[in-house]
Amino acid sequence: MFRISITTLLFIALYIHSYGQITAYQVFYGVTNSEPQQIILRKWQQNNQQMYLLLNPYTLETSARQLPTNTIQKDSWNEIENLFQHTPYIKALHQEKGRDSNLQDAGIQRTDTTERGFSLTIDLCPSSKPLARSFFEQLITAFEPEEKPIPITITITGVWIQKHMQDLAYLKDLVNKGELDITWVNHSYHHYYSPSKPLPVNFLLAPNTKISDEVLLNEQYMLENGLTPSIFFRFPGLISDKAIFDQVLAFGLLPIGSDAWLAKKQQPKQGSLVLVHANGNEPVGLKDFIQMIKQKSNLIRKKAWLIYELPISIVNFEGR
User: Matching InterPro entries, A to Z (predicted)?
Assistant: First the structure.
């Protein structure tokens, strides 16, 4: 159980106040009337405004926007799938439906195999340890100026945010400075884990876990802290079963796995989703990544080994 200091609580209160507390957060399916049409996934009240989470089905980019009610149309999910059936998003969603049976690492593990590099995914699971800031500094040194901002994917939990408001501010500052371009991924709110329990009853498979809370509460908390949730979701521990995988799909989300968890000595390939943890709990993966990019420094300078933005990689893969 994490203990949060009074200073941290005040920091949290200031953050939520600056963006506005959210009420009535809920699943809402619809489309915008203006071109290019976008899919509406959520709605909520914030700062006395009706807000919506939008998805561009052609680029997989999400945005949080206030929209007049006469510019949107509520639709069933079946109608949305039919309307956008030829877009990268619906194609990816249908591909995901065939990946729901694995206990471990279900979801997208690899994207465009013609890429000269990979997508970097960084997990921020609950931890009492500070963010590995030196990792991000070394990452920037290695890939700039060839890539600036550097596109990375961070999967984040609500419990980590609660404990690490200043670390979150550090990451957002790197975005504001143009050093990083971060795709923020929902990694569940609590990320429950017991080292003594077997996988089939651990992580989100633990008894009495309410998947809707793990998904929607974390989205809401991300928005209250100035983060726009992407269309992706990563299961804690990369552990799921068909039931909860399909529940996540029903929220309109695309689960992502990894074929290159560096701490497990899985080596990246072209188009890999590389996985490291920057929450202080898995330094070996960070060390291996830094060693790898040092070995690839000449290729990085020639732009022959780069980090790719995850949404773009999936769009390119689905368009092949």
Answer: Glyco_hydro/deAcase_b/a-brl
Quick: pLDDT tens for 220-277.
999 999 999 999 999 999 999 999 999 999 999 999 999 999 999 999 999 999 999 9
Instruction: Give the C-alpha separation, 85 to 74, whole Å.
Output: 18
Nearest in space to 84 (alpha carbons), one of 139, 29, 11: 29
Spatial CA neighbour of 273 closest among 259, 287, 285: 259
Q: Which structural domains are found in the chain, ordered by start?
A: 6-77 (no CATH), 103-318 (3.20.20.370)
The candidate with the shortest Cα–Cα distance to 296, out of 316, 273, 267, 320, is 267
CA 22 to CA 188: how far, in whole Å?
18
Contacts 24+ apart (CB under 8 A), 91-100: 91/318, 92/60, 92/254, 92/314, 92/318, 93/249, 93/252, 93/254, 95/318, 96/249, 96/254, 96/255, 97/246, 97/249, 99/245, 99/255, 100/240, 100/242, 100/245, 100/246, 100/249
Number of Cβ within a 10 Å radius of residue 319: 11
Q: Indicate the helix (H) or strand (E) that contains 289.
A: helix 283-295
pTM recorded for the entire structure: 0.94
**CA–CA dist 280, 126 (Å, integer):** 10
